[in-house]
From TrEMBL:
Gene Ontology BP terms: galactose metabolic process
MF-aspect GO terms: ATP binding; galactokinase activity; metal ion binding
Origin species: Maribacter luteus
Listed name of the protein: Galactokinase
Keyword 4Fe-4S (UniProt): no
Top EC class of this enzyme: transferase
Keywords from the named record: ATP-binding, Carbohydrate metabolism, Cytoplasm, Galactose metabolism, Kinase, Magnesium, Metal-binding, Nucleotide-binding, Transferase
Length: 377
């Protein structure tokens, strides 16, 4: 792209991916989640280009880019462009202060791995433009407009967890977020000698976005049925297993299972927080396994590769717990593992994964990191 010849960035932003300890598919059901940002980030460099409307975005690693006009922010058939376009569209709805800019980004957040490279992309762009043009957006505005961008331009009716974690995280802490009230607190993560290890299946099954929206709709169907007996139930957050069992006969078994998983998962998050605070990592690990079981058999968002990796850990005492993480249908498992065992464990897991799934395993340690920031802030 031509602008690269005269690119003199005036601002650099780092925008992280995220992990989630527990609380999967609970965010859009108004429950609790326990995420944090990780040290894998997208770096954005920006300059104003003097134009009123013309913008350029170039992705360094992928050596691809595009030009757009703020007058015509139409949905693209190139997937990653929609995260950018969606954010620009949402910003334009909120302010008329946006002008032409050039942006070069470089991503170290693995794509399709369940660590939310999409939220990192949306939030980093919004954060940088807010700084550069003085748009007056708060961090929470950035979270909400990035989520809206994903709904309208990428077509995934996601909850708020990923954007919230990317923007609001604090080093060394996880966030206990109540997705209904949006109240949150930071919980220090002191888990030595254990570490958080991500195993990447390196598969990303295509179903993800369509199946995700389907799960959300199934939960809404469950809520509508619950409301007939309990008008106060606004979301699965308000429901109990007793309420659900009362109407079991009237529900499709798939809808019943989806709702039961969510109701159980929201309680697991709170139990995991208590266990973390009491330094009872053994219990945290057990809860991770329970979550995986629910995601695999009741919510049905796992896949053979994820199930294999979780099952594999069960023969390794050094692993306290493991589960698939994120939306599902591929991506990473999150594992709580003794630090001394990591090398031997990943060697054995890689070999077994290759043999069982004929795929290469990759892995990385994740430590709770800060949210979106200006470099050298
Ligand atoms: C994806 C979504 F973007 C999140 O909002 C969340 O629902 C998650 O899947 C599942 O917990 O990452």
């Amino acid at each position: 792209m031509q602008f690269l010849n005269y690119f003199k960035p005036e601002l650099t932003i780092e925008s992280p991916g995220r992990i989630n300890i527990i609380g999967e598919h609970t965010d859009y059901n108004m429950g609790f989640v326990l995420p944090t940002a990780i040290e894998k980030k997208i770096t954005f460099k920006f300059q104003k280009n003097g134009s009123d409307k013309i913008c350029h975005v170039h992705s360094k690693g992928y050596d691809t880019g595009f030009e757009l006009s703020l007058d015509n922010i139409a949905i693209s058939n190139v997937e990653w462009e929609n995260y950018i376009l969606g954010v620009l569209n949402e910003i334009s709805k909120r302010t008329d202060k946006l002008r032409g800019f050039d942006c070069v980004l470089e991503s170290h957040v693995p794509i399709g791995s369940g660590v939310s490279s999409s939220a990192a992309l949306e939030c980093g762009l919004a954060f940088g433009l807010n700084e550069m043009f003085g748009l007056g957006l708060s961090r929470m505005d950035i979270v909400e407009l990035s989520q809206a961008a994903e709904h309208t331009y990428a077509g995934t009716k996601c909850g708020i967890m990923d954007q919230f974690a990317s923007v609001m995280s604090k080093e060394g802490h996880v966030i206990l977020l109540d997705c209904e009230s949006l109240e949150y607190s930071y919980i220090p993560i002191q888990i030595q000698p254990y570490k958080i290890l991500l195993l990447n299946t390196n598969v990303s099954h295509n179903l993800a976005s369509g199946e995700y929206n389907k799960r959300r709709a199934q939960c809404e169907t469950g809520v509508s049925a619950l409301k007939k007996n309990h008008p106060g139930v606004k979301s699965l957050r308000d429901a109990t297993m007793d309420m659900l069992n009362d109407i079991k006969d009237t529900l499709d078994s798939t809808v019943y299972n989806r709702c039961a998983y969510v109701i159980q998962e929201k309680d697991r998050v709170l139990e995991a927080v208590e266990a973390l605070k009491a330094n009872n990592l053994k219990r945290v690990g057990e809860l991770l396994y329970e979550t995986h079981e629910g995601l695999s058999t009741m919510y049905e968002v796992s896949c053979p590769e994820l199930d294999f990796l979780v099952e594999f850990t069960k023969n390794h005492e050094a692993v306290l717990g493991a589960r698939m993480m994120g939306g599902g249908f591929g991506g990473c498992t999150i594992n709580l593992i003794h630090e001394d065992a990591i090398d031997d464990f990943v060697a054995a897991a890689s070999k077994a994964y290759k043999k069982a799934c004929n795929l290469e395993l990759t892995w990385f340690e994740a430590s709770p990191s800060k949210g979106t920031s200006i470099l050298n802030e």
